[in-house]
Fold:
Amino acid sequence: MKKYLFLLLIFTFNFSSCTKDFLKEHLVSDVSYDHYDTEEGVESLINSCYAHLRDWAGTETSLRMTQFGTDIYTYTDVAAGSEWHLYNANLNPADGDIASIWNSFYKGINSCNIAIEKIPTVKGEAFLKDENGKNVRLGEVKFLRAYYYFILVQTFGDIPLLTNGNISVETDIKRSSVTDVYQLIINDLIFAAAHLPESQDDYGRATKAAAQHLLAKVYLTRGSAISDQRGQKPTDMDSAAYYADIVIAEKGSLLPDYNDAWRQDNERNKEVLFSVQYTPDLLMNGNGNQTNLFYIPQYDLLPGMDRDLANGRPLVRLRPSNYLYNLYNRKIDSRFYKAYKTVFFANASNPSEYPKWTQQDAPSPELVGKAKFALGDTAIFFSFDENVPDSRVDKRPYNWFPRNKWTEREFPFYQYEMDPNRSSVNDSRGGLDAKLMMLSETYLIAAEAYGRMGNYAKATDLINVVRDRAAYKEGEAKTPNFYQTDGGNVSDLYASTKKQMEISENDINSPDKLINFILEEKARELCGIPERWFDLVRTETLYNRVKMYNPAAAQNIQPYHKLRPIPQSHIDKISNPGPISEEQNLGYY
Structure:
């Protein structure tokens, strides 16, 4: 069995070449601090440094903080968390999501700090027996510390910068500047990129490519600032391009088909540079990857449909905005019909659940009173037909939702997070890995960096690598929507769309055109990765794009929403607080 790194908050595990995934469990509460002076203790500590990733990746908290209220996802009348969609008064320092991530990531940072202090001093006999092994593990925890700080600094701006391990509670901590935080992140990632191996025996540990990708992204983020102050330097774009190029050279071309990179049965492929591990084993899975719940519409309330494992448990948190739907040229871009589910097949076992033809809508008299469809037939179909009257809708032998009939609860949805291998239809605990870094994003990071340096030709080539893969290949069948609703010709049903998908230098040959196109392409390529809010903040476009493309969020969003509030629970613990303007972000006091 292939080994991989389980990330649990309560338990830490030691790995070996045994066919089992772990040999021992250590309750953290039963371990003394002196245990971390041993190799076994340090290895368990390093594993625990990964644990807090599970408080982020695969949670509703991460989706609220990165996808809700952006240009590409809009309001769905959720039972909880609507403040993130609407930027209303409930998005305040008392919000539980904010405190949760703040506390979790600082615990992770503290574990990393202790590990950084302990690794060089331990006298190991196995992996930590020499400097090379110690540097690999140091590279892992510095990568993790950098990741935690990167999320925090983008979210909150000035934050406490802690670099020493603490076993007692500190209450007199001041916020450091964004500039200083970015410098620590970059220093950590430079070390990690220099010492991490290209692969690890335990799947899920950080690798060289993950560190280089994140380093490129950090340089791009710091260097993107125009009015914001992040300590940006003239060399940032060159550094971003440099590290992205290294990853691209090592990993090579993208997989031939977009679906290959994202489908659930191929979740560990070469394009996944870093992900957080989950497992179908409920004993090992904690709360599981819950992302499977949040993209799905309420299909199970429609005639002929019961909730099942294949179609998922629908909590309806993320409805794509009209802007996101419109970004796809569905005639030539294969990504839409691969990534979005538009058809459901009837699964209801009770015959009474199927709708019957009425005298008004039956296509022939003999069908009146008979079921419109049966088990296994099309039960729900979402299409892009516009301005369809109810009279036409009623005559279809299934639940038809042309575009003018989509609602906050019924719409085509992003399907790559669906997890049919959960233990039951109502179990929220998915076992799919939560992807955080993908090779196609590396190409777009490099493209943006080159474009920002004025090398639009190079940027065009890199973008076209991503778009070429997204094109329909010669002989690849398009869906019937191609000619039924999307305006294509039947004669082109199997024709390549590669040339149509490729852009020219003229499409991106100014700073505004470049940034707009990159943001559009990232939405098409990576709309399931929890980071859209970060991209909009990074490019200083959050306020304007939400105003333009998200009517629900546009009502309340303000420029200060580019930062989240510092948790009130943190401010309350400060023993010697300064003025509120020093401890809290503008707009939240």
Q: What stands out?
A: The longest strand covers residues 272-276. The chain is about 40% helix and 5% strand.
